[in-house]
Amino acid sequence: MECPNCGDLLHEGARYCSRCGTRIREKTVPPPVETQPQAPTPSADRLENARVGYQAAINIWIAQAQSIWSRFNVVIVADTVILAAVSLTLWISHPLSFFFTRALCSVGLVLSLAWLVAYRRASQLNDYVLSSARELESHLADPVVTVSRGAAFSQGEEVTLTVDGEKKKLRLSWLAGAELAKSESFYYILVATFTLLYVALIFFS
Q1: DSSP annotation string for 89-143
Q2: Are 57 and 132 in contact (CB under 8 A)?
């Protein structure tokens, strides 16, 4: 430590300079600046895992929706063929037409019920994948609301998108937003119609 006046070397803790008598003032140490605790930022690995998981959930959702639609088309074609065969059997007066009619209706009834169970399972899996995707959206670095906003849009709510710098508001039309137009209700009504038709043919043929 040096004297601020004459520059003479002083021992630690000296209050006066032994050479010129200048009083040595102790240097005040400024109190540490209190810093606000910062929220922990997610690591790069966690963000990458969330991004990969979100992409996988979206891909599974798309594949599952395509699979449901394909199975539905197969059931519609099968029911149409079975009803056509039933009509042909009823039109032909043959001693075995009664048994063929009931057998075909029974096959159609089992097919419809089996599809109903398979669709219910696929629908629940689809809901799980969508919920997982919405959960992962909150963990991504940039705010992503594709699935969350899509859920609100499917319920008939108005959503706002920014396309090429311009805000665009979208809402389902009243016909598309009707309860009958919703995919789950639509599937159930069609399958129920075929089921009731098969039951009626079995009992009244």
Answers
A1: HHHS--TTHHHHHHHHHHHHHHHHHHHHHHHHHHHHHHHHHHHHHHHHHTTSSS-
A2: yes
Collapsing DSSP to helix, strand or coil, 167 comes out as strand
Strand partners, 168: 161
Q: Give me 147's structure tokens.
A: 């699935």
Model-level pTM greater than 0.90?
no
Cβ burial 44-82 (10 Å sphere, 16+ → b, else e):
eeeeeebbebbeebbebbeebeeebeeebeebeebbeeb
Residue with structure tokens 């069609």? 190
End-to-end CA distance of the chain: 115
* In contact, 68 and 122? CB cutoff 8 Å: yes
What pLDDT digit, counting tens, does each position of 27-83 carry? Answer: 555 556 555 555 555 577 777 777 788 788 888 878 888 888 888 888 888 888 888
Please give the helix or strand (H or E) that residue 170 lies within, else none: strand 166-170
* CA nearest neighbour of 71 among 110, 125, 120, 115: 115
Rounded to whole angstroms, how far apart are CA atoms 62 and 167? 27
Q: Whole-angstrom Cα distance, residue 168 to residue 86?
A: 52
CA nearest to 110, candidates 99, 121, 100, 102: 102
Residue 87, both tokens = 């009509």
Nearest to 22 by CA among 44, 7, 34, 39: 7
Q: Which residue has the tokens 């599974």?
A: 60
